[in-house]
Amino acid sequence: MLRATGLVTLVGILMQAAGFLRTSMIAAMLGVSLDVDAYNLGLIAPTFIASVVVGWLQTGFAGRYAAMLANGETALAAAYRARMLRLVAAIALSSALVLSLQASAISALMLPAGRGETMRAAALALQVVAWTLPPIIIGDYLALVLNAHGRFLSAAAAPLASVLASVVALWQWPTVDVGALVWSLLIGNALQALVVIVAITGMGASFPLDTRLARGEVATSLRLAPALVSGSLLINAAIAIVPLQCARLGDGAAAVYGYASRLHGAASQILVVGLVTVLLPHLSTLWAKGAKSEILALYRQIARLVVLLAAGVLVGVLLMGDLAVEVLFARGRFDNAVARQVAEVWGVLSLALLPSMLGTFIGKLAAAVRDARALFVAGAVMLAVVWPTSTTGVATGSLSLVSASLALGVLATAAAWLGWLRAHVRVGPIIADIGRALGLAAGLLVPAVALDRVVHGLAMAQGGIVELAVRGGCLAALAAGAVAVPRVRRWLLGTPA
Q1: N or C: which end of the chain has fewer CB within 10 A?
Q2: What pLDDT does 358 receive?
Q3: Which residues contact 433 (CB under 8 A, 6 or more apart)?
Q4: Closest CA to 330 of 464, 497, 495
Q5: How sure is the predictor about 87, in pLDDT bands with cuts at 50, 70 and 90?
């Protein structure tokens, strides 16, 4: 499991690096212009639908499919994946058609009447971006199949190919505008689906035409859909509300939030994607075997690592976020004033990193046991916090408060997930480990901040990437030195009793 996690994480880092290259190209060429606002707004509806459908598949399909494979039910598994593929393809194609045809009406719902020019540009973007849904949804579904068979690297390579293709397409596009952004994105998503299809074909997985054997299993997945989709709708509605509320603050606010969200999402993905990819099928197998003690030990290990990783990233963002944004994006139409705005929002979003990681990992157990009610409660909690807080932010004209609404919602949701976990495993040891890890992190933060202040004074004359490398390297060395202490390393990496 650890080896697969490491490989997927490495691919994820490469993907994020390529994604940063694309984002820096957009920042240099378009800054926080109307084109970038329209592009970000056009992505909201397709991203929302894809997240909801994939969330349903993770809970309603992936866990049960992994259990079939673990129990040796190969014929049933083949019929199940084939029948689900047809259903998923129909959902993806019909959703894309509706979004494309109703792009103007959907954009009008997202923006106030006074933002007519932005509304029209967002509608044009949505007409194209809508067609990213079939390759994204079908590709993600087939990636879940690959993960269940232990083909984690093949599934992880597909998003990397997608980002690289979109970077090349954007670079070669004659005129960089909102059209170049959406078409290059569509090209990348198409390649992502193609890579996954090739991997499935190479694995030799069959998709039989006669799928009557799996009729009952698919019916069960569909019966779970209302509750699962309702919960996923609430969670993703809360996430989508934030950029929509930012757009109400005026031109450029949605773009600023989009850049900050990209930076925050990159950190989250690097820290989460490797383990999450491997975790769901592993938890499904453990749950099918009734191995609750192994599940508890696994979550204790995860909690220890998550606290230290999230604390380290948060401190790094707060100390060097403005410098990192300037190094990555501050060129062309993206000036230093915009960089400071982006860094501020990034710092606020980073407060959600720890609760987001904990909630995500606990949510995978809910997906493994197919608990639709838990997902609904988590979504309701998050929306109940994000909606009023972000509305207050709009009323006061505060982009930081609108952004903070997401962090507060994630924190409340993580508390709800811990409450749910208590009904399935003993959470006392997990909470104790979180407390000890927070104490260890706090012991590192004080010398880390002091060290950074000294290094900043010495390196600031160099500026730019040199200063960022020196300061980041010193913090990384301090963290590595602490982990190198045998007692600390044994506690972090050893298997809890």
Answers
A1: C
A2: 87
A3: 300, 303, 304, 496
A4: 464
A5: very high
Whole-number Å distance between alpha carbons of 38 and 345: 20
DSSP annotation string for 187-249: HHHHHHHHHHHHHHHHHT----S--GGGHHHHHHHHHHHHHHHHHHHHHHHHHHHHHHHHHTT
Largest CA distance in the chain: 70
Measured at the CA of 90, the angle between CA 85 and CA 96, to 5 degrees, comes to: 125
Cα–Cα distance, 167 to 22 (Å, whole number)? 5
How far apart, in whole angstroms, are the C-alpha atoms of residue 110 and residue 127? 15
Q: How far apart are CA 9 and CA 167, in angstroms?
A: 21
Most confident range, picked from 22-26, 427-431, 488-492: 427-431
291 token code pair: 């191995």
Closest to 396 (Cα-Cα) out of 257, 252, 258, 245: 245
Long-range contacts of 74-80 (CB under 8 A, 24+ apart): 75/213, 76/213, 76/214, 76/217, 78/205, 78/206, 78/207, 78/208, 79/208, 79/210, 79/211, 79/212, 79/213, 79/214, 80/211, 80/214, 80/217, 80/218
What tokens were used for 350? 């980073």
| pLDDT at 39 exceeding the cut of 70 | yes
Give the Cα separation of 402 and 389 in Å (integer): 7
164-181 burial, b at 16+ Cβ within 10 Å, e below that, comes to bbbbebbeeeeebbbebb
User: What pLDDT sits at residue 111?
Assistant: 67
Show the tokens assigned to 61: 């399909």
Q: What is the C-alpha separation between 200 and 204, in angstroms, rounded?
A: 7
* Confidence label for 34 from pLDDT (cuts 50, 70 and 90): confident
The pTM (predicted TM-score) of the whole model is 0.72
User: In this structure, what DSSP letter does residue 331 have?
Assistant: S
